[in-house]
Design brief:
Distance between the termini: 25 Å
Helix content: 40-55%
CATH superfamily of the largest domain: NadA-like
Strand content: 5-15%
Radius of gyration: 19 Å
CATH class of the largest domain: Alpha Beta
Order of helices and strands: EHHEHEHEHEHHEHEHEHEHEHEHEHEHH
Bound molecules: 1,3-dihydroxyacetonephosphate, iron/sulfur cluster
CATH architecture of the largest domain: 3-Layer(aba) Sandwich
Number of strands: 13
Largest sheet: 5 strands, parallel
């Protein structure tokens, strides 16, 4: 069963407006950003702060994290690393839910992001008030939410999951007879449902990047590269997932590129992943999966406009004066509530049991 909320439709209009301005900012950004690299690296090393980056951010920022003792990873590993690293200051290069997760898991640490404006269409598409009402009208269901949500939505949940662990956790919950609410990504929800057979009520939201991947254009590309494997992030439309040779989180897709025998891959996720994926498979050909492009509504095709807002200059500004406008702050009680389902996820990662 699918729930379509008016709030979500309204939020989609906001997303499109936001994408316009985010893209404009990115286009206007100085091409001299890379020249900041050495300066920022030296400041970061001297600061003792740790940089935690997602695969979708600028390759310079990914390299900076690698070369300074930080990490480049999927959202689950970003959360785990941030919680376990002893640094008292974390700089999270990604989108707001990733910075918020780091802060919720480590309230004693100071957590900064190059911009707090870097949000996510899934987070926008799941307003906490509407979500609370939805949950309240199904009180007998266990509430499982994707990590790509606000702290308030997490605080209402029994479980938080990322794409790398969602199937395993839902499988375990279904095995002990629980019926679930899932939010917000409908494609990931349907994928989990098919994999596990769980009884799930799905929220109806989507990622503006992944939902633009299209089977029709994929067929045209496959005709040119008939032996290519297909790697698909589960936020993509069902027909893409059904055709995939591997479906998984960003880290799992990189692992699949190394594990599978194909010498070329078509990759249906944000193109930022090519930096680390190509490192792992230097001899393999990596191709971007086609999106609707100019023929559709997509204004962010294969690159998340909010991830693109992470700039070296933003990290430089943090290191210069720990700009309060870039610091994540979370209400203490809200943080305590949201910590419970996040901790369950990390414990499941260690023990494999719910
Ligand atoms: P991963 O957890 O797979 O890195 O996904 C995060 C995300 O936002 C994908 O769009
Ligand atoms: Fe959100 Fe999609 Fe961007 Fe990931 S790629 S952060 S799901 S908008």
């Amino acid at each position: 069963m699918t729930l379509l909320v008016d709030d979500y439709i309204a939020a989609r209009a906001d997303v499109k407006a936001y994408l316009d301005s985010a893209l404009l900012d990115a286009m206007n950004a100085s091409s001299r950003e890379s020249e900041l690299y050495d300066e920022v690296k030296n400041k970061l090393l001297a600061s003792g702060a740790r940089l935690i980056a997602h695969y979708y951010v600028d390759p310079d920022i990914q390299r900076l994290a690698e070369e300074t003792g930080g990490i480049v990873s999927d959202s689950l590993e970003m959360a785990r690393f941030g919680a376990e690293d002893p640094a008292s200051k974390l700089i999270v290069a990604g989108v707001s839910f990733m910075g918020e997760t780091a802060k919720i898991l480590s309230p004693e640490k100071r957590v900064f992001m190059p911009t707090l404006e870097a949000t996510c269409s899934l987070d926008i598409g799941c307003p906490d008030q509407a979500f609370q009402q939805f949950c309240d009208s199904h009180p007998d269901r266990t509430v499982v939410v994707y990590a790509n949500t606000s702290a308030a939505v997490k605080a209402r949940a029994d479980w938080v999951v990322t794409s790398s662990i969602a199937v395993d956790i839902v499988d375990a919950l279904a095995a002990r007879g629980e019926s679930l609410i899932w939010a917000p990504d409908r494609y990931l929800g349907r994928y989990i449902q098919k994999q596990t057979g769980a009884d799930m009520l799905l929220w109806d939201s989507a990622c503006v990047v992944h939902e633009e991947f299209r089977l029709h254009d994929l067929d045209a590309l496959m005709a040119i590269h008939p032996d290519a494997g297909l790697l698909v992030h589960p936020e993509s439309p069902d027909e893409m997932i059904e055709r995939a040779d591997a479906v998984g989180s960003t880290t799992q897709l990189i692992e699949a590129a190394a594990r599978l025998p194909h010498s070329s891959f078509i990759v249906a996720t944000d193109r930022g992943i090519f930096y680390k994926m190509q490192q792992q498979v230097p001899d393999k050909l990596l191709l971007e999966a086609p999106t609707r492009g100019a023929g559709g509504t997509c204004q962010s095709c294969a690159h998340c406009p909010w991830m693109a807002m992470n700039r070296l200059s933003g990290i430089n500004r943090i290191l210069d004066f720990w700009d309060p406008a870039c610091e994540i702050l979370i209400d203490a009680e809200l943080g305590r509530q949201a910590l419970k389902p996040l901790t369950r996820m990390l414990e499941f990662k260690l023990t494999g049991t719910v």
